[in-house]
Amino acid sequence: MEDQIATKDLYEAAWYYLNGCRIEGIQCLEMDEKRPACFFSFRSDAVPPLQKAYLRQEAQVNLWQFRRAYAQLRDYVADAKKQFARRQRLEGGAK
Known about the structure:
Number of domains: 1
Number of strands: 3
Low-confidence stretches: none
Helix content: 40-55%
Order of helices and strands: EHEEHH
Strand order of the largest sheet: 1-3-2
Structural class: alpha+beta
Mean pLDDT: 92
Oligomer: single chain
């Protein structure tokens, strides 16, 4: 059975993504008036050991590959925030 995890930490998200965890979704939530927070949801059998390694500061990566994964996720966040802002405007929630 696959485990699922959600995080708004882009470094942690890049760690899971780089290690083959499948992105289930990206959700932006309004946390304050200035900007939304975006959460990545991942699913994989590897989630528990990857989370353990990350939280114990034992994560090791190929820096070039990590940089590319981080940049790709950063682009996903930018797109998700644009879509969130559009929805807010359409719903009349933008101030």
